[in-house]
Amino acid sequence: MDVLVTGGLGYIGSHTVVALAEAGYSPIIVDNLCNSQAWIHARLEQLAGQAIPFYRVDCTDRLALAQVFEQHPNVQAVVHFAALKAVGESTRHPLEYYQNNLGSLLAVLQAMQQQHVGILVFSSSATVYGEPEKLPVTETTPLQAPTSPYGATKAMAERIIADAVQANPQLRAMALRYFNPVGAHPSARIGELPQGTPNNLVPYMTQATRGVVPDLKIFGHDYATPDGTPLRDYFHVVDLACAHVLAIDYLAKAREGLPLQFVNVGAGTPVSVLQVVETFRQATGQPLPYRFAPRRAGDVEAIWCDATLAKNLLGWQPEYTLADALLHAWKWEQTLGEQEIPA
Locate the NAD(P)-binding domain: which residues (predicted)? Predict the structure, then answer.
């Protein structure tokens, strides 16, 4: 099966491309390189051991996107990652986030409809739960008002997909609600590659350790948590990539007329920011100094998931530990220090 992967050179997308190839699928990448690098493409072909078509296309460009579908009439599934994804940035540039994240989804759904592509796996987020009243969250946990425009775009996107599925019984879709994927491929050939100052904790940690940024800033230490820092649900990005493959496997066998499926993907264990720092120190042997900074707009105090449905429905569960993920992230960071634009 040919699978179109939007945002396929990005962090989660690139790992999913490798996982798809390893599972016997033929991935096709669409990426506008706004938050990724073109040289990742060659790395993916090396890891996959096969040629992987890549088109530099912005998914909000409906004509260009439609042309990609037309060139690959055997595409039967789409994994849609392409989106802006920084919570803090979205509070400063909300219109850009709504335009990009919702516009790209609408273009993808229209192209799928025109080409009769019947499987969609959507990159959603735990941010749709807002600040949940009860933890851990399950797929039936009531959605709270999103705490950021980024979270709002994910909640709106889910509604759009649900309506599209209801109107088109041939469309089968699953929204994977990610919690906090971290780490890098064990080969250290691909990993998280933020543009500018990182917005996510782990690349901030690895860059601070390597001296790219002065030190690690922990945003907020006065939350009502055991150590005052936010609680999150961290798990390995390779495990997340595998969840997308299992989602396609499931949807390919599912009956027509199935409503949009929602599935939490996370370790199911709350870990504080300070605990992540300490696990990083133990896994890598690096000292990692840090300092506290004011709370960041859009951040929630605590959130982690119950991933029982992912296990029961997809047969998915994490294979890697948090220590594995942090060690792999550090190995990846070290390769960037050796050569900023690797061959």
Answer: 4-324
Phi, psi of 217 (to 5 degrees): -100, 125
What one-character-per-residue DSSP string does 31-68 give?
E--SSS-TTHHHHHHHHHTS---EEE--TT-HHHHHHH
Residues 112, 171 contacting (CB under 8 angstroms): yes
Q: What number of H helices and E strands is found in the chain?
A: 11, 13
CB-CB neighbours of 38 under 10 Å: 12
What letter does residue 223 receive in the DSSP assignment?
A: S
Domains observed in the chain = 2-182+233-266 (3.40.50.720)
Cα gap 251→321, rounded to integer Å: 28
4 contacts 76 by C-beta, under 8 angstroms: no
Q: Which residue has the tokens 């543009």?
A: 195
> Per the structure block, which two tokens stand in for 222?
């006065």
Helices (H), 168-217: 201-210
Q: Give the closest residue to 322 by CA, choosing from 283, 290, 273, 285.
A: 283
Scanning the structure block, which residue is given the tokens 């590659």? 193
Rounded Cα distance, 104 and 325, in Å:
30
pLDDT (tens digit per residue) in 129-166: 988 999 999 999 999 988 899 999 999 999 999 999 99
Q: Are 39 and 342 in contact (CB under 8 A)?
A: yes
Instruction: Tell me the mean pLDDT in the region 48-60.
Output: 98
CA 174 to the chain's CA centroid: 14
In sequence order, the β-bridge partners of residue 30 are: 6, 55
Residue 294 burial (10 A CB sphere; 0-12, 13-18, 19+):
exposed
Query: Contact, 142 vs 116, CB < 8 A?
Result: no
Whole-structure pTM value: 0.96
Catalytic residues: 150
Give burial (CB, 10 Å; 0-12/13-18/19+) of 142. Answer: exposed
Asked if 140 and 261 touch (Cβ cutoff 8 Å), the reply is no
Q: Averaged over 40-66, what is the pLDDT?
A: 97
